[in-house]
Amino acid sequence: MRGYLFSKYNSDENNKTPFEKLLDYFLQLLTYTNGDASEALQWMNELDRNYELTAPQYGMGDFIDELKEKGYLDENAATGEIKITGKTEQSIRKSSLEEIFGKLKKTKQGDHNTRRPGQGDELNAETRPFQFGDMLEQIDFTESIRNAQINHGLDSFTMHEDDLKIKETDFKSQTSTVLMIDISHSMILYGEDRITPAKKVAMALSELITTKYPKDTLDIVVFGNDAWPVEIKDLPYLQVGPYHTNTVAGLELAMDILRRRRNPNKQIFMITDGKPTCLKVGKRYYKNSFGLDRKITSRCLNLAAQCKKIKVPITTFMIASDPYLQRFVTEFTETNNGKAFFASLDHLGAFIFRDFESGKRKTLY
């Protein structure tokens, strides 16, 4: 008996070339292999043997050659070692952004809208009378000439200050963001790979900010036993270390970075499994991996309160489902009056969004 397999029609997928289809798999695997191109290609060959990803007319060797030709791979002529390029790093971030937040077109200016008009980047449909201090380029000459004709007639055309109309613009605010990423050992503990979803969220957020809000500033901080800054290009290569979770060190470094930023709007994004286990007291590390230690959590809550006082909201991306960890994140978020996203490992694109400012709760897909 002949059977038929039905699947959802995807016009974008059907329009892709064999290279583009394989590239999607390759970029996903690079996230799991921490940017190791050789290991990712080994997995590609294994998947091809089991699931026939390629066709006779376009094999895996053709795909590798095209990766090199298009600038996704760089091969060392002397050692034969292959590495991914900056183009690949950006493609991984873009792929994560499309997976989590949907496709986003690049804009030329930041897009933090407010309801307050002022000297900004984007014109709106409103006009107002001229005021002392307005710039020449703000004058709406069409409306101003029309006013002059109405007020003074066509025979003796003159233009006065009262005839001038000014084009309103929407004020655009700039934001300084610090993105904190937990790289402690608990991010891979108990057989759960939490670091890969964390990296995907981090890469999506970094691509979102750099493409949608290019006038903003973005700093990235990783935290284990200590905290230190990393570059955006380093995100695909992040690995979990034999570290505890010093959330306090991460928050202190993030706050120190934001103090040096001149933008009035500042925020912290924190990606973690929600369990702080380490604190540095002088030169000694105070550690407790067996549950939530009040000495550690109290310092975290104090910093959350300090951030609220200086108007720095903290948005936490929680990559864990433990109820007692979620309760701590809830308390932490309420203390800061910030936001929390609870993300499941098997469905990262769906978040349970808690907005403690508006009291709303909804699921984002």
Can you give me a brief rundown of this structure?
Helices cover 36% and strands 24% of the residues. By secondary structure, the protein is of the alpha/beta class. An eight-stranded mixed sheet has the order 7-6-5-8-11-12-13-14, with helices on both faces. It has a two-stranded antiparallel sheet with strand order 1-2.
Report on the structure:
Helices cover 36% and strands 24% of the residues. It is α/β, with parallel strands linked by helices and 365 residues long. It folds into three domains: 12-84; 118-171, no CATH class; 175-364, Rossmann fold. The strands form four sheets. An eight-stranded mixed β-sheet has the order 7-6-5-8-11-12-13-14, with helices on both faces. Strands 1-2 form a two-stranded antiparallel ribbon. Strands 3-4 form a two-stranded antiparallel sheet.
